[in-house]
Write a structure and sequence with these properties.
With 108 residues, the chain is mostly helical. Helix content is 80%, strand content 0%.
């Protein structure tokens, strides 16, 4: 819910509030993800990715969020590739922007 609130606030150009709501969605998912439940791990990965998208100019904050999301998605793909490969693809696609910004074009 908080994750969706953050996205809706961003659409309304209320970026500070959007970042706050998105940050608040990460902690509950982080706690729930410790149960090794794929849906909770997926929720955490999605929340991290959404938060990174709210940080387009702050590459130093966005990059670790995307990398963590990719790590979670890779583990989920090992469990169920049909369900989680599209999410991994989305995370990998989001990685290209901060890498390009940092001049790491061969990695992007």
């Amino acid at each position: 819910m908080l994750n969706q609130l953050g996205l809706n606030l961003a659409l309304a150009s209320r970026f500070n509030e959007a970042c706050h709501a998105s940050k608040n969605s990460v902690l509950p998912y982080r706690i729930l993800a410790t149960t090794d439940s794929p849906p909770f791990k997926s929720g955490l990965a999605r929340s991290l990715l959404d938060l990174s998208n709210l940080r387009p100019k702050d590459v130093s904050e966005a990059l670790p969020l995307i990398e963590e999301s990719i790590g979670l998605h890779r583990k989920l793909v090992a469990v169920d590739p049909v369900i989680y490969t599209p999410d991994l693809t989305r995370s990998l696609n989001n990685l290209s922007v901060p890498l390009s910004t940092l001049g790491r074009h061969s990695e992007a």
